[in-house]
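Curious: can you check?
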Amino acid sequence: MDLPVESAVAGQGTLTEQPGRIAGRSLEEWNSAYAKVEGYFHALRVRNRVLLGRLVLQVLNRAMWRAPNEPQRSATELAAEEMDHLVTDWFGQVLQEVPTGTDNMLSTRGRLALLLADMPDKWQDQFLRPGPWPDKFMKSMREMYLRAGPDFQLSQMVPRQLDLGPITTLTNFSRLPYVKMAAVWVLFALALAAFFLLIHWPWI
């Protein structure tokens, strides 16, 4: 869904100082940021197109207000940062947890709680909506949040040596028995060839 982003700043003339640019960035750059944020919400299974568009523009609005004061940051970087802040703060309110600047577990466990609580099918309209929220939604979210932790930890896959089973033990044996076996078969083949020649040779 590739929407023009001019509508995100309607009525905010300070952000549209040049034709084809918003908050000092090109429309192409903001469209890339739009796609990034939209992909994130798609991963959370937000399927309603109206709700999806409104959430994306909410994030972009926050990024656009920051953009003129942070020219060294890309629009996509600003949008991703604002998206994370917005979602984490919302999780903190719904789950009654205080988000910290260094701990990403609230965001991680919150996203898992969303899926466990079946937010995409039952509570999609509540996502990122300010409170108060339905009691059933809050209860389900907090139950699923506790189920996702507090012992829930992110793990990293560490490469391990591939175990090939018994075949590895075969390759560890000395090659001498195989050389002997090959020699026996060669001698046997030579004996058969000599026997064949003795039988079919013309002078016999």
User: Anything to note?
Assistant: The chain has eight helices and two strands. Residues 6-147 form one domain. The chain has two domains: 6-147, 171-200. Confidence is low (pLDDT under 50) at residues 6-14.
